[in-house]
Amino acid sequence: MSMFLDTAKIKVKAGNGGDGMVAFRREKYVPNGGPWGGDGGRGGNVIFVVDEGLRTLMDFRYNRHFKAQSGEKGMTKGMHGRGAEDLIVHVPQGTTVRDAETGKILTDLIENGQKFIVAHGGRGGRGNIRFATPKNPAPEISENGEPGQERELQLELKILADVGLVGFPSVGKSTLLSVITSAKPKIGAYHFTTIVPNLGMVRTQSGESFAVADLPGLIEGASQGVGLGTQFLRHIERTRVILHVIDMSASEGRNPYEDYLAINKELESYNLRLMERPQIIVANKMDMPDSAENLKTFKKKLAENYDEFDELPQIFPISSLTKQGLSMLLDATAELLDKTPEFLLYDESEMEEEAYYGFDENAPAFDISRDDDAAWVLSGDKLEKLFVMTNFDREEAVMKFARQLRGMGVDEALRARGAKDGDLVRIGNFEFEFVD
Asked: What whole-number distance in Å separates Cα of residue 125 and Cα of residue 129?
């Protein structure tokens, strides 16, 4: 059995920026040389690139962690550290990328070669050459590199096909695909012979071509996960035209019209927008006894229940076995595709508003809580970012960080919450005493 994976959860970590350097120019005939420490290099991004040669997300089954390299540290003589190379991750066409934490869609990758940065590398820390001022011409201050973005992603593969074959199990979808394309799907006289989507290219007699997907058979309750459930329904979302294959011979004792209603109900239950796609009804197995009579009954019932619609769906009687009626079906499908636009898969509310990363400018700069040991705990994206980028090996850098906290209003907020002289204050694993 061919392995097919259409969902995966992975973790990505962009590279940290390189640390800036504290250095001084000391040359025999150069008095008052001044600061000479360079900036750190940029951390590598994690970039998804569409590769048309990939068909599944199988590569992400065993490799779920992707980490880019960090930038080089700054060097003496004012030299910057080298920026790290980006980490390129290849994904198949039709991959939707969601943020696993928020559920928002980051991007929909459908074109070969399309790129998207899923995690941004941190900028390099500044060296002490950047902090020189007339008041402090020889600063012993440098910054650590900015941390790279880290996030958990949910990947979903929705195959790229113009036309999707839908219908109950054993109605002849795989056989139809095998005779109109060069695809070789598994065909058997039992339910759920097809357990993964099969894709094939059709070329009509008039020269038109389009991609057709034979998708796993539906049963009632599929939209709630019964049978192959949403494993199938996910893949029909990209199709523009649906070929609804029905067994007109009723060989398994089912009612063709009831089958038609049941499948449409599952499509509607999964996603109301699937019913916007135009359908062509494919009356299959017309070479079997009773098929012609069943088709008459089907058309009559369809007409009786379509009063509210402008026009009935097209119905094409065919036989995949004898290849009867196939050319007319394919020409009509190509004609319908020509006048059917692409369907927008996602509403704006589902998309992440922007690709910006880091802290929210409108969010509070810090938050104060209390630990079990009575220590005050400071947290918040902006504050934690300043903390990580502070080089605590240098006293001037520590004093600069203290001034930044005071400027953010941390001292006043702690005092208002009841902090007293000597109380323990904690930021991550770093602790210091509050001085009133």
From this structure: 11
